[in-house]
Amino acid sequence: MEHILNVWLLGTFFILVTAQERHGCVLSELGPNIEATEYRTIFRPGQELALSCKLGYTSILGPRTIVCTDDGEWTETKFKCIAKRCPNPDPLSNGDLYYEDTVYQSTINYTCHEGYTLSGPKNAKCQADGTWSTTVPECKPVSCGLAPIPKFGLISFNKKISGNATYFGTHGTYKCLPPYVLFGNAHAECTASGNWTKTPECRVVTCPPPENIFNGYMSSNDQRRYNFMETVQYGCNGDYMLQGSFQISCQKNGDWSEKPACKAPCRIDIGRGRILYKEKKLWIGDLDPNKVFHNDIVSVYCLDKVRNCGYAVSTQCIDGNLKIPECFKEPSGIEYTFHSGSLPSEIEQC
């Protein structure tokens, strides 16, 4: 009888425990990046479970604890875990950085501009503690060494040079010692490839003795070779007018610059009439001597027969030649002497 009672009591306890477990809470999925402080299959009603965030994440909202209720459900919570954020990365001097975000496990990729090489890691990762895995690397300029200098030449740099090293972005200017002349590019540059641009040459340049010009003279008649950039001046005889530069120079190609020319004055080939010269109306007989200079402009007067009025027509002296316009009709001696008031230059102007 005692044995039967013990079996009955044991069966009753098993039923109670089973019923209690049936109404417990099961540990299911907690949510993205959330973890529990303890792991069991079943939690009894009234038991609490503390929540926390996985490594690299931080909590927002709450509560941080959920409780197993009598109906086998967990109490509600708004507890969430979001990724920790690293600070905005520092800029990379002479380079660029590429990234999409600054949260945990985000990556920054570093590259340098042309002419610079990366010193340090190529990338950095946002770590669980909210810091970047490495500091910003450095973009160092490419080294070129000292620039080659041509024989009989020199170079001046745009910045102070220390030791035997120069770097990308360094510029220089070549010059030649007199009487040598620079052939090639005077501008030098340390390039992204680590080499200097092509070195020019210094050569001697001379020009043959210059020739005189017709109706002119030179400042020097030395029959010798002239050095680069040496000059000679020209002038014209008498009333001849110099056209072009009064000075020529020995050029880089060994030739002289273009010589000027002496242009002859002109005679106004009319015997009777009135002209307009240098904004003055003059009778041709009052122009003494009868001469205008090269490039001077003279106007003669023509008659508009339809409207019976006079008008001035210009002509220009070109190296001794002054063409009289066809419309000009030279008056007779009588007209010119006794009826000058009826000439085209004296009547009403059109």
What does this structure look like?
The chain is mainly β. The chain has five domains: 2-83, Ribbon (Complement Module, domain 1); 95-141, Complement Module, domain 1, CATH 2.10.70; 153-203, Complement Module, domain 1; 206-263, Complement Module, domain 1 (Ribbon); 274-342, Complement Module, domain 1 (Ribbon), CATH 2.10.70.10. Helices cover 8% and strands 32% of the residues. The strands form eleven sheets. It has a four-stranded antiparallel sheet, with no helix packed on it. It has a three-stranded antiparallel sheet with strand order 2-4-6, with no helix packed on it. The longest helix has 21 residues, at 2-22. Mean pLDDT is 90; it is low at 1-21.
Strand and helix map with partners:
Blueprint: H1 2-22, E1 25-26, E2 34-36, E3 42-43, E4 48-53, E5 57-60, E6 65-67, E7 80-83, E8 95-98, E9 107-112, E10 116-119, E11 123-125, E12 138-141, E13 153-157, E14 171-176, E15 180-183, E16 187-189, E17 201-204, E18 206-207, E19 216-218, E20 226-227, E21 231-236, E22 241-243, E23 247-249, E24 261-263, E25 274-277, E26 280-283, E27 297-304, E28 309-316, H2 333-338
